[in-house]
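Look at one record.

>
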Amino acid sequence: MTHGSLFSGIGGFDLAAEWMGWENKFHCEWNEFGQRVLHHYWPDAELFTDITKSDFKKYANQIDVLTGGFPCQPYSAAGKRLGKEDERHLWPEMLRAIREIAPRYVVGENVRGLTSWNGGLVFDEVCTELENIGYQVAPYLIPASGVNAPHQRERIWFIAYRYANGFDQRHGEYEIHTSQTGINALDDVNANVMHANDQGLERGKNNRSSKKLRPQSKKQFTRSIRTSWENFPTQSPLCGGNDGVPSELDGITVSKWRIESIKAYGNAVCPQVVLQLFKAIEAYEAI
């Protein structure tokens, strides 16, 4: 299987594709730190930078799975929620890339807030516009806790399967030839995804009403990842025990790349969730 990623970040989708044994053909990422990470781990993949200035036609009908977590800031509950008025509303650019590339599958990702912004307007548009160019779409709400991650991180995932033939590169249109196999394609994907989905959502419902990490969940997480979360969230088990700056480091400026790496991790997708989606796609391909 061949894979290409948009809004690639530090390569969460690409890492999951590598775990699957797929070939990463290209990335598209404007951030310098993300570009360096992508080039380091996948030096043979082509790197596009600014999606608004990139032409993807050279990959028309050459990519099996195209992925992209289009920017979430316009819809996130943690931001101003300017939606389409935000310059980071880049779904139209991702849609253009999909038209140019015509992948067999599209996997998109965004924050849960996409479903509630302006009554779910953009959420509906994503589904409708994919359907209009020949894809059947199935959206899922899957949290990172669905794969035993020790945090909620609910995300909307769009899995789209192309059931159209005869892509017209000149007009960016599809000639639709439906079949029962094509129409029902995502039913099989659905069956393979729901195991992680059900577990994660149920865990999410149990935790959502409390602002603190519940003791029962903490024990469960500790067993699953074999680390200590006794002082979480005030102290991270992944860093030093003291969140303050040690006295011997007074006056030392925090590295630019350390700041960039923290931002990158915050924006990254959870590759273990992506892996379950990719396994579902490959399971359908094997039928």
